[in-house]
């Protein structure tokens, strides 16, 4: 079953784990591929809405994987089994992703593979709060959109504010689409700056511009 570049990047990081939980699974394409390729031995495909749950269920049946993939109607990581060691949460806003990982017991999760569509800083902050550290980070493009991927393993590591905001690995490696996103934000701020009338907002924009310049220097 063919999947997008975005999902295949998430999929790669599940390899070698035992049981995957895909939260907000929608069509269940990710767990179907992870099990079919032998990356994990079994999976839970979890969604909190009836429509996606039914689609996920019928796809799992279609590929005759119902003995290996359990389709669950559930909220976040609330219903994961105790032998789940790897969790994917992809295609949602960073605020929702961070709420989900903060909320319930992490049980025996060793790895989170998180692909927030925005606000990746909130996700990094939440990971730090629950005692996970960033093992890998990517900024990539798919279908003309730029996405973040954050792979986090259990074990606490201290991060400074800049690392939480931009990502510790992004700051070191400065990947192409990371730079491109910062250049876009810089251009946008420079365009609006002359039209700003309030002093406080002007100061805010100028200090953000300085920060962005330092980050990609
Ligand atoms: C935009 S889809 C993303 C589907 C897939 N993960 C992907 O990356 O293509 C988001 C899915 O997350 C589900 N969802 C949203 N909040 C959820 C929650 N708290 N728990 C479980 N599923 C949730 C939605 O019902 C929807 O099916």
Could you explain the architecture of this structure?
Helix 1 (5-12) crosses helix 2 (29-36) and helix 8 runs antiparallel to helix 9 (199-216). The protein has nine helices and seven strands; from the N terminus they run H-E-H-E-H-E-E-H-E-H-E-E-H-H-H-H. The longest helix has 18 residues, at 199-216. The chain has a seven-stranded mixed sheet, with helices on both faces. The chain is α/β, with parallel strands linked by helices and 217 residues long. It has helices spanning 5-12, 29-36, 50-62, 94-103, 120-129, 161-166, 168-173, 176-192, 199-216; strands spanning 19-23, 42-47, 69-73, 86-92, 111-116, 132-142, 145-154. 35% of the residues are buried. A hairpin with a 2-residue loop joins strand 6 (132-142) and strand 7 (145-154). It is 44% helix and 23% strand. It has two domains: 5-159, 3-Layer(aba) Sandwich (Rossmann fold); 174-217. Bound molecules: S-adenosylmethionine (SAM). S-adenosylmethionine binds at residues 7, 23-26, 46-49, 52, 75-76, 90-92, 96, 100.
